[in-house]
């Protein structure tokens, strides 16, 4: 038996359909029931949501199925008008590492509140956002998805890491994320407030955040984080993780996961040579050093920062375009 090809509307929905859509298209309830029996050509993924194929669903189909489940039955689920993916599932769709796929948080317009399932967590809201389409799935913008993720996460380290990855990947500006967290009244939570403070200070990774914690506990000067350095003639030089402009000292946190290839390792060495050729002293450390032996890193930085007071040649680099919000942040 050859299974008929799904109508174009359902192909646009990644071979997914709701029971309401199927019956509105003239498919009898009995046909839906028979085709979704074990061994049948269709599969029931969620209550009233069906996959019109025999193969297993991929992550996009599972994400869209969550939106179809939560959307108003008579609405176009692809419009993003009544349901939109948000939180960890929306961030995972963007490629954010370690963002959780399930349960999928789906915004719905309050006071509607569809029943939650093991795979879908409907989130009623009166603050409906502007939505976008990511890989064919209605989603909130990354800045709202990040805030919605933070509102439900319980692990402070995971909050810190995910928010840093969202900003580092370029999906939103740290000032915009700060504003969204403040609007959602999430800065009242210590872990979220700390993560926001790190991001607006320029920190872009969990390792940098740990380094900032270690430095804050010392009397060392406060560095610029991820400042862009230029040569006197305006050529881009590098963007070290931390930089002390008055002393010409940089901290570079180099993770082994990015240095698996010879080319990647040589690129790191060339960047260090460029910095040193322009009079900048560099301390290199790995994330594990920052985590396990932060005192050794701060001692090395202290030694170089002290050396610069008697250095005859000042650094030949200029930090540009680096803006930070004043701390402490207002909640």
What does this structure look like?
The protein has 331 residues and is α+β, with helices and mostly antiparallel strands. It has three domains: 50 residues, no CATH class; 139 residues, no CATH class; 114 residues, Endonuclease, Chain A, CATH 3.40.960. Helices cover 39% and strands 18% of the residues. It contains 13 helices and 15 strands. The strands form five sheets. Strands 9-12-13-14 form a four-stranded mixed β-sheet, sandwiched between helices. Strands 1-3-2 form a three-stranded antiparallel β-sheet. Helix 11 links the parallel strand 13 and strand 14. Helix 5 crosses helix 6, helix 6 crosses helix 8 and helix 8 packs antiparallel against helix 9. The longest helix has 16 residues. The C terminus is likely disordered.
Helix and strand arrangement:
Blueprint: H1 8-12, E1 16-18, H2 19-24, H3 29-35, E2 43-46, E3 49-51, H4 59-70, E4 83-86, H5 87-93, E5 104-109, E6 120-125, E7 131-134, E8 137-140, H6 142-152, H7 156-168, H8 174-183, H9 190-200, H10 206-216, E9 224-225, E10 228-230, E11 236-238, E12 242-244, E13 249-253, H11 262-277, E14 281-285, H12 287-292, H13 294-307, E15 318-320
Parallel strand pairs: 5-6, 13-14
Antiparallel strand pairs: 1-3, 2-3, 4-5, 7-8, 9-12, 10-11, 10-15, 12-13
Helix pairs in contact: 5-6, 6-7, 6-8, 7-9, 8-9
